[in-house]
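Hi R.,

Here's the chain you asked about this morning:
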Amino acid sequence: MNNELDLVAVRLIKEKTYYSDAPVNSPQAVVDFLKQELSTYDREVMCVVNLSTKCDVINLNFVSMGTINSAVIEMRELFKASILSNAASIVCCHNHPSGDPTPSKEDIKLTERIGLSGKLLGIELLDHIIIGRGNMPYYSMLEEDVLPVGNMEVFKREVSKIKGSNREQML
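And here is the predicted structure, written out as tokens:
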């Protein structure tokens, strides 16, 4: 009887580079960074921005490409690159080809699953952003208080600034 055990190695492979001069440290910054790419798709696409402990971008992973109104997201696929990249936190982002960034019930449930899965893995979900079409409206679950605010101070500060400026505009 021959007992063999294969040794395997798992590595990230760099496919393409996206570049931004601005730091990606707020929901608006994530939208500005990804809007050009996500606006080109005629179907839903989910991507994950992997971040370091200081919220510096490590890399970007396209997780799923679906249909005109849905995409299948498996947690193991969503977090695979995050784990391999030693990410401390993530920002999930997907598009709505219809143009309306309002989250569906499925989007909210998915966000809850991602948040819970991330807690188990020790990878914090900072935000889930939905990008529309045209003039690129977006919906940030963090800004809309759908997503519980985590421990990452950088995102908290930026969202507070945004909310503060919105209040000043309303007064």
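One quick note: The beta strands are 45-51, 57-65, 89-95, 124-131, 138-140.

Cheers,
M.
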